[in-house]
Amino acid sequence: MTTEIADCGAAGVSKAVELLKKGAVAAIPTETVYGLAANALNANAVRDIFKAKGRPQDNPLIVHIASIKMLPPLVKEIPDIAYKLAERFWAGPLTMIFKKSEIIPDVTSGGLDTVAVRMPECTAAREIIKKCGFPLAAPSANLSGRPSPTTAKHVFDDMNGRIPLIIDGGECKVGVESTVICFKEQKIHILRPGGITAEMLSEFGEVEVDKAVTAEPAKNERVLSPGMKYKHYSPKADVFIVNAHGKQFLEYCLKRSRFENGLIALGAGVAEDGCFMDYGTTSEIQAQRLFALLRKADEMNAKTVLVEKPTTDGVGLAVYNRLLRAAAFREIEPARK
Ligand code: AMP
Ligand code: MG
């Protein structure tokens, strides 16, 4: 199969809609990361997403809608708080989990009796959903395990020959996947941190962060969000989080780079020199750049990537959560040596 890249104007949108209506898979831009989309209500189409990605079948997909009107048929009930959050944060990077209705195929929900739903902010994505007239299941458009794609080129690098079409909407604005929440004992329970932060959600009720966000699940432990248990987001290089900042981070990386080939260091606001690459001084910029830099490290044949530990408040929690999985939870403490 040849993979076409089309821009997100009217012609590209029509092409995507035509394919999706036939039950095919197409990659679309969103404000978080690129999505690999198919009709969420068509089990065969959704199965092809899993095939293209090589994603484990027990990892459910997020269902994307274009208007609040599309929500009620997908779910059994909508708690009041969900309406309030939708009003404030939709269209945007917030995914909410509901009891699923009968029209959601098991393959979409990974066999769970719940369904994850969000309304993307990206105009092209909403336009495509609206023209299709059905919701789109759309996980990140990377091969399973690889860093999520934040440009059409990243999608092409992973999906060339596996899907017919990629719609190019430029660089993703947020750069990490949506915040995923469920409602548990009257609380807003964060399963995956993202662009809508715990601080922002706390205006609407008590917020708790699932322990799997920052802790490694024990083998065979049942996790609330199946995606949490997999090694994820990783480049081919070995990634380590380094809990040191400023001069201490620079010195630690420089010392190692004298003895190791293929070492790359991502520092917050470092001068781009030698092995150093800058991943930004705010959490928002770090989120936007992180996956692109991990992919760049691969292109440079890096063997090891050392990343300065991000702050963990605001969007920083999402950056730290993705890094922990890219690093298989390995954190280095230079000060303790
Ligand atoms: P992705 O599609 O790659 O953005 O990943 C979707 C994330 O949402 C994964 O971590 C899933 O495990 C999680 N998710 C999707 N649906 C559900 C659900 N019904 N219950 C819990 N987690 C879900
Ligand atoms: Mg993903």
Care to describe what's here?
With 337 residues, this protein is an alpha/beta fold. The protein has 2 domains: 4-213, Alpha-Beta Complex (DHBP synthase), CATH 3.90.870.10; 238-332, 3-Layer(aba) Sandwich (Rossmann fold), CATH 3.40.50.11030. 29% of the residues lie in helices and 20% in strands. The protein contains 9 helices and 16 strands. The chain has helices at residues 10-21, 43-53, 80-89, 123-132, 152-159, 198-201, 246-259, 283-299, 316-326; strands at 4-7, 26-28, 35-39, 62-64, 94-99, 114-118, 136-137, 165-168, 179-184, 187-192, 207-209, 238-242, 263-267, 276-278, 304-308, 331-332. Strands 2-3-7-4-6-5-9-10-11 form a 9-stranded mixed sheet, sandwiched between helices. Helix 6 (198-201) links the parallel strand 10 (187-192) and strand 11. The longest helix has 17 residues, at 283-299. The chain is globular and about 60 Å long. The termini are far apart. Bound molecules: adenosine monophosphate (AMP) and magnesium ion. The site of adenosine monophosphate (AMP) has 20 residues, from strand 6 and strand 10.
